[in-house]
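#lab-general

N.A. 3:47 PM
ok so I finally got the sequence cleaned up, no stray characters, all 78 residues accounted for. can someone with queue access submit it? mine expired

B.Y. 3:52 PM
send it over

N.A. 3:53 PM
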Amino acid sequence: MRSVTLGWIIGNDGVRKTTDGGLTWQKQSSLFLSDLMFISDTEGWASSNNSIYHTTDGGTTWVVRHSASNQLNSIYAT
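B.Y. 4:20 PM
back already:
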């Protein structure tokens, strides 16, 4: 969780976001991601299979920033 109210989760159906501390979750994307890390309320990084994704709008849209030949299972951003 980025704060007591704002957070994201990933699952088999994509990315979900909460703005009320986890009471409700809104689906944002159908991307199947293996790891997700937000460094601000709007900027986040994610990995999936062999790609690294980036968002600057809180997870509404994701852009592929890198594709690799190896599988990427996790990501860490500071």
